[in-house]
Design a protein that fits this description.
This protein is an alpha+beta fold and about 100 residues long. Helices cover about 25% and strands about 30% of the residues. The structure holds zinc ion (2 copies). Keywords: Signal.
């Protein structure tokens, strides 16, 4: 009678250890699946880089951080204008308003 109880207890203990072990390994062994959709954490501007992160679809851990290159100015057409008898050409960035002369 006593032996049987011991055996039952031992089996329960093993089951307990196994379940804890498998739960732990399931977390630790997350292979991190990434579906390719990034989340922008910092928007890039004309002159500054931004950042985007890719998160594991299973556990939410950030698996990849990518620097988004600066966009560069998006200048419009060159426009000629004359001031003080000198003719300049100017174009203006449509995004940030930065202007460039020549
Ligand atoms: Zn994961
Ligand atoms: Zn710009």
């Amino acid at each position: 009678m006593k032996k049987k109880i011991l055996k039952k207890g031992l089996i329960m203990l093993i089951v307990c250890i196994l379940s804890i072990g498998s739960a732990f390994s399931a977390y630790a062994a997350c292979a991190h699946t990434f579906n390719g959709s990034y989340e922008t954490t910092k928007e890039p501007t004309c002159t500054a880089t931004g950042t985007k992160v890719g998160k594991c679809t299973k556990c939410g851990v950030v698996v990849t951080t990518v620097t988004i290159p600066a966009l560069g100015h998006s200048y419009g057409e060159w426009i000629k204008y004359t001031t003080g008898g000198v003719t300049y050409s100017i174009h203006v960035c449509t995004r940030c308003g930065h202007s460039e002369y020549k």
